[in-house]
Write a structure and sequence with these properties.
about 100 residues, 4 helices, globular
Length: about 100
Amino acid sequence: MTQTVGERWGEYLRLGRRMSPHTISAYLADLRSLLDFLSLRQDATEEQLRDALTQRAIRSWLAQTLCGRWGSFDDCPPHSRHSQFHRVGSSRGDPAQ
């Protein structure tokens, strides 16, 4: 039986990295959030995930995840902004630009 990306990663975190069940649960929740953001099913293959993971997609997901509770990137507190999300001279409305 083929394992999903999440199952394989969870197994790696448990056996390879020896992380606690709570940490693994949190990491897998982030993976589910990313898959939802990318409009991928929870049983997406590694190839589908690899094809969807562009730098722009990752940056947009991170910005949404980190600052989504404030409504927009512009409303996000400065200490929550990372320089990789906001380049000088870029549009402040879209952190992926």
